[in-house]
Fold this protein.
Amino acid sequence: MSSKIFRSIWVAALTVLLLTLVLVFSMLYKYYDRTQQAQLTNEVHLASRGVTLNGEKYLKNLDTDNFRVTWIAADGKVKYDNKANPAKMSNHKNRKEVKEAMSKGFGASSRYSDTLSIKQLYAAERLPDGTVLRLSVNQTPIWMMLLGFAQPIAVVIILAILLSFWLASRLSKRIVAPINKLDLDNPMEYIDNEDFKELAPLLQRMNIQNGQIQKDKSELEKTSLIRQEFTANASHELKTPLHAISGYAELLENGIVRPEDVKPFAGKIRAESLRMTRLVDDIIDLSKLDEGGESMKWEEVDLYRIADNAMDSLQSAAQEADVQMSLEGESAWLHGIAQVLYGIVYNLCDNAIKYNHPGGYVHVNVRPSDKHVILTVTDNGIGIPLEDQERIFERFYRVDKSRSKEVGGTGLGLSIVKHAMMIHKATVKLDSTPGQGSAFTITFPEDPEAEK
Ligand code: ADP
């Protein structure tokens, strides 16, 4: 970057220098032009007085190498010229300066001669006898003047190139040095510093981005911690049934078990493997939901029908637990993933049956309401203590571990519900009183994509 800055400064300095030279030169030339004209006017004035007093004699004695002197009669005929034969010269009556002098007493003009583009200045004055005296001088053209100055100009330009090179390299280093010293982690430290005034917008942006990076980092750390914890918990949960299974199998293998106990042992092995299957299924469901549902099929679905299906597959479990299930409400369409929504109703109803008393009930209600769909699952089961209500959506969190195990819980049901809700941008409200029952109310937006 520093070489780019250097080049820009250098080019800028040289451009300014050249422009200044051109400007100064053209001003000087204008000034030179004006003074020469003024001088010529003075000189024609003096010469006129000489001629008035002494006539042609005065002109002949004049040292006039630098000037051309022409004396013109009142009718325009040339009476005298120091550089040409007056007899051969044309009538000068119509020359601009002569014409002016004849009518006004004085006239001046300038013309370019055809060759070499040399400019000639003229000044003419009328004498008391009506004749006109004209002086003319050649003006050095600007390029000739420049040629005369070539040496000093070249020296100035070379000096300027060297000086601006040195200055540009110093300046670019000085501009870049503080930037290189910036502590990028704390850009706001420099915001009031005079040296960094121009960088203020950049520093502010950096600060915002640093904040964002910090946030992303801590979120990443949090998720990685949750993952680690989950992996540890999951392997622990999987090991328990495995240990039990291998324990029972060992006893059977060694023939220690009495024949009448073989059946209950086999039953225990089956129950433990079922628990493992459920656990593995829940883990698979959760990891699918972790992807955010992007690879799954989004469509318009009727939550009422989904609830009906989910309850259907829980019918036998409900019967076994002696719990009555009922569905109320009406068709309620929303944009979502059928399989994931099914998981929500299934897990909520499954819990409402599992944590219930024989003879209890589970009421499910699905209805549309103002661009939303509301699902309520109410039971008159054991209820959830207030202090646990916040935590039951955490992975592997159970209010009563032994009861959960007894009814075949994995501790993952409600975290599946939580993830499924997040994907659909739904919110949950829980009302529960221990000993009386629980009510989960979930509100889905009809179109999750419209939701912020
Ligand atoms: P689990 O597989 O143990 O049921 P969940 O994540 O589904 O795990 O639920 C977490 C805990 O919340 C359960 O262990 C239970 O203690 C409590 N819980 C969930 N739903 C209900 C309910 N309807 N009534 C009473 N307790 C409940």
